[in-house]
Design a protein that fits this description.
Helices cover 37% and strands 20% of the residues. By secondary structure, it is of the alpha/beta class. The protein has 2 domains: 133 residues, Rossmann fold; 142 residues, NAD(P)-binding Rossmann-like Domain (Rossmann fold, 3-Layer(aba) Sandwich). Strands 2-1-3-5-6-4 form a 6-stranded mixed beta sheet, sandwiched between helices. A 6-stranded parallel beta sheet has the order 9-8-7-10-11-12, with helices on both faces. β1, α1 and β2 form a beta-alpha-beta unit. NADP nicotinamide-adenine-dinucleotide phosphate (NAP) binds next to α5 and α9. The site of NADP nicotinamide-adenine-dinucleotide phosphate (NAP) has 24 residues, from α5 and α9.
Length: 293
Amino acid sequence: MRQIDGYTKTCGLIGNPVEHTMSPVIHNTLAEKEGRNLVYVPFYVGRGHIKAAIEGAYALNIYGLNVTVPYKSEVIEHLAEIDEMAEKIGAVNTLVRTQKGYKGYNTDMMGLYRAMCSEGIRLEGEDIILLGAGGAARAVAFMCVLRGVKKVYVLNRTLDKAKQMASEVNRILETDCVKPMRIEDYGKLPGGKKYLAIQATSVGLYPNIEDAVIEDRAFYEMLHTGFDLIYKPAKTKFMSLVKAAGGQAFHGLKMLLYQGIIAYELWNAISVKEEDALIVYEKMKAAMGIEES
Ligand code: NAP
């Protein structure tokens, strides 16, 4: 049992809902492992209370915060400062306490990159199929361009959203490599090569575990790798379809792990050792009842 005393630093998560979050497992495991006097707790924030929540957290000397759905964009106007890349992405998931207020960062993007590196996935020179054009997909598109991919084909149900996202990323990063498409037009993708697909829609998320945003085997035969941002379930229908067509498939739990690790590093100005990150990952899998090596 950890000692809570007058010196204990408090970090937490603000969002709605927060009941099923895995973030306390990440941060409390790291704090215990390091012998750091820090606790991490989820804070439910009701609609319309985000400003009060940020001001209250600052007044209560809350050391650092994560921000989740639905406040990743809404929180920005209540910050003292914002990291340049988080500002470009237009979403913040980590707040670091400063003398003037909180500074906002986006660790989702770097979390995905570190997750991919740890799985041996390279982005440089790749042709990417990005499924979805929501908040997570936007961060993924930035990350892909910044990591030197050749092309990002954004396939979305609502074409206008894909167009808007592609034109914003292209404009901000001064490129033209992000191409919007209707999701049903995957047959028009350039042939003669294999793609890395990143699944960033919410289709297939628990409890709708039998759904995949594309079912056609011909699509999956175009992929060498499929990376699903969803981690609940740990084996999505998308992943099963990728594997059935001969590709390698990954779920999003490591992305969740590393976005948390990077937040913890920002709060405490340290680097977390890879072996400690993997200890945390085992705890997360155990908490979710995932059995895999
Ligand atoms: P979002 O902003 O709500 O975007 C949802 C996306 O899914 C949109 O592109 C939407 O298309 C598409 N979509 C939803 N229902 C669809 C359907 N029936 N058919 C086709 N497309 C559909 O959500 P988000 O925040 O980007 O999150 C997306 C996913 O990423 C979620 O499953 C979330 O759990 C996961 N995620 C994981 C991590 C991690 O750490 N592993 C972090 C962030 C997010 P339209 O534009 O046409 O509506």
